Amino acid sequence: MMPTNNEIGAKIRDLREMRRVSVEELAERSQLTVEKIHAIESGGVTTSLTPLLSIARGLGVRLGTFLDDSTTSGPVVSRADTKEKSAVRFAGAGQSGLEFHALATNKSDRNMEPFIIDVHAPESDEFELSSHEGEEFIYVLSGTLEAVVGKEKYVINAGDSIYYDSIVPHHVHSAKGVETKILAVIYTPN
Asked: Which of 17, 57, 133, 166 has its CA 20 to 30 A from that of 149?
């Protein structure tokens, strides 16, 4: 089972303390504010994926470290009946959020982060672009996704996919006010 946002914050705090990294050092390494680190660690905010990727890089771990319960180096099977139990919701400016269902939570030596993501209808047309090292592949399972990558907008329908360098500022959200479901694979270099 994937941890809740409160458990993710506790894992970040435990890792930071175990590595003897102060909140100020982590804020500097991850280019986030001290206040943002405190809020994430306390579980007081639902954050977006980009700050978690920055924190993972700042601590020298992969993103999955925050999402895993136990680890194995062998194959990992994700069962359909566990997806609802394993959801973690991330907020995004101008949208009601993204609900992530991790597909490889207990694979310890993975280089990719595969997810099924429920992309909820946006609350407004306002959103912020974000960027991080790596690459992203998105396949739309149902609904319609709008992907803004750099200065370009792409409408991705069910059955379509997009692959982009995630260092380029980007944002994905449900298009036309409909709920959308995607398969996303995120790669971040170590």
From this structure: 57
